[in-house]
Amino acid sequence: MVNFDIFDLIRSGDAEWLRGDILSFTENGLEFNQRAKGVPKLGPGKTVNVDADIVILATRFDRPSLSFLPSETFEAPYGPPNWYLKTFTPQHPSVCINAIGSVGNWHIGIYTRILLMFLLDPLTRPRP
Fold first, then answer.
1. CA-CA distance, 2 to 91, in Å (whole number)?
2. Do the Cβ atoms of 50 and 29 come closer than 8 Å?
3. 52 vs 126, which has greater pLDDT?
4. Minimal CA–CA distance to 20: which of 47, 52, 53?
5. pTM of the prediction?
6. pLDDT value, residue 69
7. Of 12, 16, 24, 108, which sits 20 to 30 A from 72 (CA to CA)?
8. How far, CA to CA in Å, does 11 sit from each of 33, 61, 74, 95?
9. E-assigned strand segments in the chain
10. Which residues in 15-75 belong to E strands, given as ranges?
């Protein structure tokens, strides 16, 4: 799991971000099809050999559809992703959407405390 240190490493030149496709891994790194911006995946590019100790594969994240939820969960001003604390929909406080990020152990502790607060003190629970 990558944390924000990767950006400091890229800025300092200790790590490099490459756009393109991995063709194969080699003994010292990888063979890579380096593409220009706007060229589709597996499109034309320049084949380069990259020496690497670590390879981080990054894909884009598409938020899953929430269309299975009742339509009132999407009413302004608390439509997703602007639910209460970006987790609960005030219209249905029993629905919780959560994703563990790059500091998962911290999120688990924080959300556990939030859920305990809601359980122990009804006045803190989200409501319409």
1. 35
2. yes
3. 52
4. 47
5. 0.44
6. 79
7. 108
8. 23, 23, 39, 40
9. 20-25, 29-34, 46-51, 88-89, 92-96
10. 20-25, 29-34, 46-51
Question: Tokens 């209460």 identify what position?
Answer: 84
Identity (one letter) of the amino acid at 8?
D
For residues 92 and 73, the answer to whether their CB atoms sit within 8 Å is: yes
What distances in angstroms separate CA 43 from CA 34, 87, 99, 108, 128, one per listed residue? 9, 39, 33, 41, 50
pLDDT in tens, 70-118: 777 777 776 666 665 567 677 777 777 766 555 556 777 787 888 888 8
In a 13 Å sphere around the CA of 80, the CA atoms on its Cβ side amount to: 18
State both tokens at 47. Answer: 């084949």
Q: Report how far residue 81's alpha carbon sits from residue 74's, in angstroms, rounded to the nearest whole number.
A: 9
- Is 102:75 a contact under the CB 8 Å cutoff? no
What is the per-residue pLDDT across 34-62, written as a single tens digit (0 to 9) for each? 999 889 888 899 999 999 988 888 766 66
At residue 46, the 3 state secondary structure works out as strand
Delimit the domains of the chain by residue range: 5-51, 71-124
